[in-house]
Each structure stands twice: as C-alpha cells, then as structure tokens.
Amino acid sequence: MSLAGGEWGLRDYGEGANTVWGGDPDCEHEWVIETTKHDNLRPSKVSERTIVGSNKELRFRTGEKVRSAFCVRCNAWYGQLGLEPSLDMYIEHLLEIMRELKRVLKKTGVIFWVHGDCYGGSGCGRGDYRNNNKRSLSNPNLYCEKPNPHSKLTPKCMALQNFRFIIRCVDELGLILRNVIIWYKPNHMPSSVKDRFTSAYEPVFMLVKSKKYWFDLDAVRVPQ
Questions:
Q1: What CA–CA distance (Å, rounded) separates 173 from 207?
Q2: Rounded Cα distance, 161 and 10, in Å
Q3: I need a labelling partner for 198 at 20 to 30 A (CA). Which of 34, 42, 144, 191 fits?
Q4: Would you tell me how many other CB atoms lie within 10 Å of the CB of residue 151?
Q5: Which residues form the DNA methylase N-4/N-6 domain (predicted)?
Q6: What are the pLDDT tens digits along the chain (224 aa)?
C-alpha cells in the first residue's frame, strides 16, 4: 500500500475537498466561520493567479486566507485536510486516516507513506491567526473561542510534521517502522532560498502491523 500524506498548509484543492472532521455525526451542526492565514497559498505578485493543487486551470484568488468552520455544539471542524488551523489538528486527522488503513491492511501487508515537510513562517507554522476571525453562519453576533494551537513554530524552523506523525503512529497505533527511505528527486523544483540547502528529497516511511510480513527484496536489488 503506497500513499502520500500531503503537507500541512501547502495546497488548496477547492471547496469539493472539504469535509466534516470529528464531532458528533448525529449533531445538527451550527457552524462558525473561521479565517486562517496561509502564506503558502497567496497569489502570485505578478499575475495574481495561482494553480490550485493538481488542477492546472488557473483561477483567481481573493488573497492568502483560507475559510473553514467549527461547530459550536459538538466541536466538529469543516474544512480540508492539510488546511487545518493548527499542526496538532492536522496530525490528529492523519491519525484518523492511518487508523482505518491499519484496520483494513492485511497482517502481512506493508504501508509506504510519503510525507514531506515545511518551515515555520512559510504559511504552515503560522502561529495563531484565529482571534476576531470567527462568526456564526446563523448568528453573526455569536463567536466561538477555540484554544490556541499547541504547535507554534519558530520562523525558519522545520515543522517536522512527518516525523511527529510517524512517531505517534508507532506510539499510539502500534505500527512498526521498518525503514525511512530517502526519495531523491534529481529534477526537483528550484528554490530561491540563500541561507539553507534546497530540499531535493522526501522521506518514505515503511510501516508494518506485524513482525512477519511479505517483502520481496530481490525485486528491487540493483545488479552488481
């Protein structure tokens, strides 16, 4: 089983990718709109347009902010995976997905999980932009105060979102981490940074649920 975990605060796939996370499935939700700043999603200064996810059709954006909503009754969140207002919430949602993957995975199965990272101050480690950005859909005077995000990253510091998630998979879900494989990308996108090396790879995490599993090492051996 090969999957890509995506990256927090990087892509917006549009309204069609939004869904309800957590809360009570039987709740008659009363949503409170929240606007969160996402620097990585700001439009180009030249064209004021951006490519959204894998959709190659350019579309205009209204700015760098992303709208989502919380339910004031059951605390459910309506939004898109990867655009959560905090890193902790994003990891919780990934754990929810991984929990189901483990459930349906054969005892002899293997998961290869591809997951990159981002940097604080680049739109992912944005701290708390939630104050005064919330209003109720049914009552404009009703505000819902949410706790501040636990993970506030130092600007320029790697978020380590991938390793934070994998550690919790091991500690909480009981998965076994067998390898961290480096996926080197020789044709990677150029970077404008001048005070660090360009990220030209992504880690691939090899996870299993049992000590004995199917693995064909000969199929990937490099002939000598």
A1: 11
A2: 12
A3: 42
A4: 19
A5: 79-224
A6: 888 877 888 888 888 888 999 999 899 888 888 776 654 444 434 333 433 344 334 333 334 566 788 998 898 999 999 988 889 999 999 999 999 999 999 999 999 999 999 888 755 544 433 344 444 444 444 444 443 444 577 888 999 999 999 999 999 999 999 999 999 999 888 888 899 999 899 999 999 999 999 999 999 898 88
In 3D, which of 100, 98, 79 has the Cα closest to residue 165? Answer: 98
> Domains of the chain: which residue ranges?
2-220
Instruction: Using DSSP bridges, classify how beta strands 31-37 and 176-184 pair: parallel, antiparallel or unpaired.
Output: unpaired
If phi > 0 it is left, if psi is from -120 to 50 it is alpha, else beta; for residue 9 that is left
CA distance 122 to 120: 5
Cβ atoms of 12 and 83 closer than 8 Å:
yes
Angstrom CA distances, 190 to 69, 153, 182, 199, stand at 35, 24, 19, 9
